[in-house]
Amino acid sequence: MDVQVGGRYHIAFRTQDGEEHDVSGVYQEVEPQRKLVFSWAWKSTPQRVSLVTVELRPTAQGTQLDFLHERFFDVDARDGHRRGWSASFDKLDKVMATP
Questions:
Q1: Using an 8 Å Cβ cutoff, are 47 and 68 in contact?
Q2: Cβ-proximal residues to 42 (8 Å cutoff; 6+ apart), any chain
Q3: Does residue 8 carry a pLDDT above 90?
Q4: Taking Cα atoms as reference points, which of 88, 90, 91, 49 lies closest to residue 71?
């Protein structure tokens, strides 16, 4: 990860069932401790570039994370990403709830 405007990131992982995934992109906006905007393209479909925005806001209880993934190639891509991100955020909720 090279977290600066124009910097690149690369993530590769394997699911529990052995399926491999590889995604990368470029940071388009970087506001430390507040906002990241970056492109998102799977190695298997590099022409299908979508956009992710992550914003952090302080609240009385801690920090609010607002997440938006948009500009999908089609509805199937959108729905697949929704399932993947939902599962990831469910896991994050469990980790954050652990004392």
A1: no
A2: 21, 22, 23, 48
A3: yes
A4: 49
